[in-house]
Amino acid sequence: MAEDAGFDCERAAEMVEELRSGFRTGRTAEYEWRVAQLKGLVKMIDEREDEIVSALHKDLNKPHLESFLQEISLVRASCLLALKELKRWMKPEKVPAPVAAFPASAYIVSEPLGVVLVISAWNYPFLLSLEPVIGAIAAGNAVVLKPSEIAPAMSSLFANILPKYVDNSSIRVVEGGVAETTAILEQKWDKILYTGNSKVGRIVMTAAAKHLTPVVLELGGKSPVVVDSSSDLQVTAKRIAVGKWGCNNGQACIAPDYIITTKSHAPLLIDAVKIALEKFYGKDPKESKDLSRIVNSNHFKRLIRLLDEDKVSDKVVYGGQRDEKRLFIAPTILLDTPLDSLVMKEEIFGPLLPIITVDKIEESFNIINSGTKPLAAYIFTKDKKLEEKFIKNISAGGLLVNDTTLQVASPHLPFGGVGESGMGAYHGKFSFDTFSHKKGVLSRSLGSEAPARYPPYTPQKLKLL
Ligand code: NAD
């Protein structure tokens, strides 16, 4: 049974109990169950792709190609990877046994945690919902998915179609906003993976603490891009533009938030980014079908407040046009925005791109490190020494050299934040590990005693050691 839009908060405890008793039968831990669910997800993607694309378009005006490349194909690839690797992931991992226990064997068993909760965000509503669910299923858990109410078409699509492809007695969708999420957060979960802003992250962590439930918090932050003058201008500009405006019009957790470059390089970079933008979206981006819209009027107003702040309103060097009715804000570049302006203090999460200039590119490290740790940090350079310094000195969830956002596409890299940008990580095997308990097992034979171990502790025994 799907827990649909009319989710009854009073039923939250009952729902978790149902899932827990199903989990206790051991069914979800079986390899065959996990495989059947993952195959169900692949089938759902293959049969329902048009509906998924259309929900993403309805919620975010997301272009078809972006939906496919940045959400659907990634989720499908993750299912296939889990299907391919699951046997290997589930295998107990042999480790050396301690000499004191000889003869013995030691190994680590990955066991499912139990009943887990995934709370996802609106900006990549398909990817951010299913990617963690894949990990939860692969690790053998019962799972509840709470999609974001800010992407209602995708939320309702999940509630309608997921139960047709997976075992609904152990995998549920609960739709709803604050009231429903609050009600389910009161329950005892064995793990919670939350994606969204850090204010709600704190609410989730506080609720989890009451039950000693471990959490993964996938939060955001201001992801900087350092541009060194040695980098190829045109390639750099295209890769910045596609990572910013080509990712849901900047409404992506790892989209470039701001650029730092040298004073002399900034005008060249700005011209190159303008050229890239006009190639991508034409002279009038409002008419482009390839640019997502701002998700709703709250976020529109939030972004306009950043753009119209007195300190920055005269810093716009490109774009700045807006149309509230169409939830449109043009790709906008700001130059030399003061570091104490709102646009440089808050995560932007939209199409505004401030450029900060410095005399020497190394000064960028201090600017980045004086803020909270970002989810991603980027550098464009041909200078290997500068690249090494950046990797050594910049702490962020993940780093990418000479491109933006593509780190998300590798299942071999952990995806997650550090400090204010989050805790815990997932993707690929990291998702499986995140939703597993690593149970250490030591197995001894009953022979081969070491008498020194047992009291009474005589001086002779001490000499034996
Ligand atoms: P959102 O508004 O969709 O909220 C996220 C989830 O929190 C939703 O499911 C929502 O129902 C729930 N929620 C909202 N208020 C709540 C409350 N008071 N109590 C309990 N639950 C509540 O998404 P958002 O927060 O606007 O997402 C944007 C933020 O998320 C940005 O900061 C972005 O960087 C970050 N983000 C991070 C990642 C990542 O992978 N690290 C991915 C996407 C977005």
From TrEMBL:
One cellular component (GO) term of this entry: cytoplasm
Catalytic activity: an aldehyde + NAD(+) + H2O = a carboxylate + NADH + 2 H(+)
Annotated ranges, domain Aldehyde dehydrogenase: 10-439
Transmembrane segments: none
Domain of life of the source: Eukaryota
Gene3D superfamilies named in the record: Aldehyde Dehydrogenase, Chain A, domain 1, Aldehyde Dehydrogenase, Chain A, domain 2
Active-site feature positions: E218, C253
Keywords: NAD, Oxidoreductase
Listed InterPro entries: Ald_DH/histidinol_DH, Ald_DH_C, Ald_DH_CS_GLU, Ald_DH_N, Aldehyde_DH_dom, Aldehyde_DH_NAD(P)
SUPFAM superfamilies with a match to the protein in the record: ALDH-like
Pfam families named among the record's database cross-references: Aldedh
Entry GO MF terms: aldehyde dehydrogenase (NAD+) activity
GO terms for biological process, alphabetical: aldehyde metabolic process; response to abscisic acid
Family according to the record: Belongs to the aldehyde dehydrogenase family.
This protein's name: Aldehyde dehydrogenase
Natural source organism: Dioscorea zingiberensis
